[in-house]
Amino acid sequence: MDQFKTNLLNLERKIKILLAEYKSVKDELVSVIQENSGLKEHLKQKDEQIGHFQNRNKISKIAEHIGAEARDTAGLKTKINQYIKEIDKCILHLSE
After folding, report:
1. How many structural domains compose the chain?
2. Is the CB of residue 58 less than 8 Å from the CB of residue 50?
3. What span, in angstroms and rounded, lies between the C-alpha atoms of 51 and 64?
């Protein structure tokens, strides 16, 4: 009977150790999931910032290009109208 009781106590002790380890791993998992979520949000914000910078860069290049090609107002107006038509085509293509 003593052997049975000893085995039972050992089993109980091992179960308590396993439960403690399980709780620790579970807590760590929750922490990692939260960190992952935060990092994904941060990455999304950085991607948006990069997109904005790329758009600014494109606009700067267009402005430089317009300035170099169209010195007078009429030429500038023509260039802007061409860009607007091209943008409208792109929007139409994207909306299909």
Report:
1. 1
2. no
3. 20
